[in-house]
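QUALITY CONTROL LOG
STEP: pairwise intake check
CHECKER ROLE: data steward
CRITERIA: each record must contain a sequence immediately followed by its structure tokens, with no blank fields

ENTRY 1 OF 2
RESULT FIELD BELOW
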Amino acid sequence: MIGFLTGLTYGLNIKKFEQLLHNFFGKTYLDVFDDNGKRHRPQEWFIVPIEAINQAIEMIISGVIINYRYDQESESIVLR
């Protein structure tokens, strides 16, 4: 996956790119509960269909992502 992203994001600031993905999908973090019932929320794990992630990457690269948001209910990218 990293090699794939590196090819697509050549010339982009990778930290800004990652921050855009986090902001875009930020409310879809996976909740994980340990044996004591304590909730943990890993900051790198999203519950999002791979198609939506691929679409978001393309939209970031083209610059149109600012016109869209991720809708958790429909699990799709929608116009703002």
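ENTRY 2 OF 2
RESULT FIELD BELOW
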Amino acid sequence: MTIDATVIEVYNNRLLVRNLSNQQEILVHFRNALRFTPGDTVRIIFNGRMTFSIPPQIVASSIQSIRHPSTPPPPTSSELRGTVIQRSRNSLLVHEIGTNNQFIVEYQNSYRFFVGQRISIQYETIFLNVPPDRSRIIATNINPLR
């Protein structure tokens, strides 16, 4: 995912930024944070996972300076693969394959899936809890794995 933002504060290995699209403040963990200064406009690339904390936190894979605020790019989708452990009317409880993480996946057509089924979930953002058990995903699409 990509966020265009204005740097508010700079710390060692972190930035406090304001998202240009919704004015939300976000704490961004990034090892080269000290190369930015308050007032810089930046483009942040991250994996789509965001904590529920105040302010929410993300880990950036890269941050680039941009000269002028721009229209945010269209959202990109990320993928998570897991096994359905519980199903309700509009959500699934999913165990991520290869980890101990469980996610509540909000999806309008969750009735199409069954307990024990392996699925691929496309999403734009994960809202992580701390500790990370039962974090929430709003799915854009879900497909069975073969």
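INTAKE CHECK: passed for both entries
DESCRIPTIVE NOTE, ENTRY 2: The chain has a mean pLDDT of 86.
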